[in-house]
Amino acid sequence: MLIPSIDLMGGRIVQLVQGEKLKLAFDDFEYWIGRFEKYPLVQLIDLDAAMRQGENTALIEMICGRLRCQVGGGLRTAEDGRRLLGAGAKRVIYGSSLFGESTSHSSPDSAMNGAREIQRRHKVIRLEFAEGLKRELGEDALCFAVDTKGGKVAVKGWKGTVDLTPEEAVTWLEDYCAAFLYTHVDTEGTMQGFPMNVAAMLRASTAKQLIVAGGIREAREVEELDAMGVDAVAGMAVYSGMMEA
Q1: 158 — phi, psi (to 5°)?
Q2: In whole angstroms, how far apart are CA 25 and each of 10, 101, 140?
Q3: Out of 86, 115, 185, 204, which residue is the most buried by the measure of CB atoms under 10 Å away?
Q4: Do 215 and 184 form a contact (C-beta atoms < 8 A)?
């Protein structure tokens, strides 16, 4: 399945190269919403929120009212997800907040307010947080983002990494979500092609829905991924006109 992406920054639809360099920007929301109305799922990411430099809440609410979206970008508590689901999101995406070696907390809503420390089951993956999200929001509402840069899980708007491979992350987190979103940051926005060996490795690591992104440039790749049982997010190829959507 092809999943079109809508990335928001500064009130516009944008496409970045490797999460850093602005390549394309659009203001015509009606045009792109019309293009994507036929799809059963659209990926909607608030890049400003992910990079902790603002938010695009009004646009997210408007788009969720028109399209079936899984929404992500800077979600840190269960309440963040609850708010987006209330705004019409079909599913919410958690990424960076699932990883890190800092203090773990007893509930998903206490992640930012200094609740009592509890014993962690994994030194890098916040399993207790993931478990709390499942309890608070329900497994079907959750997509966990496992993005990599140089082979390690990337966090904080892809500015940093943690010492963890994507297959480790997926294996540990599988019990708490309905789907995984994997972005290959090294090829994101480059249209150089997605590494199929990575998709195969991840497909073997989880029985949950697997969605991949990063460098996809043509329909043939989407078909090859589909044959593996993997869904594909396309952004740059669609917005540049390389791929029909």
Answers
A1: 70, 15
A2: 10, 36, 32
A3: 185
A4: yes
The two structure tokens encoding residue 219: 């329909």
Residues near 227 by Cβ (< 8 Å), separated by ≥ 6? none
The CA-to-CA distance between both ends of the chain, in Å, stands at 12
Residue 166 structure tokens: 């994507």
Model confidence band, residue 72 (pLDDT cutoffs 50, 70, 90): very high
- Which long-range contacts link 241-244 to residues 24+ away (Cβ below 8 Å)? 242/191, 242/217, 242/218, 243/216, 243/217, 243/218, 243/219, 244/219
Please give the pLDDT value at position 214. 93
Burial of 30 (0-12, 13-18, 19+ CB in 10 A): exposed
What's the CA gap between 170 and 181, in Å, rounded? 10
Locate tokens 């960076």: which residue? 96
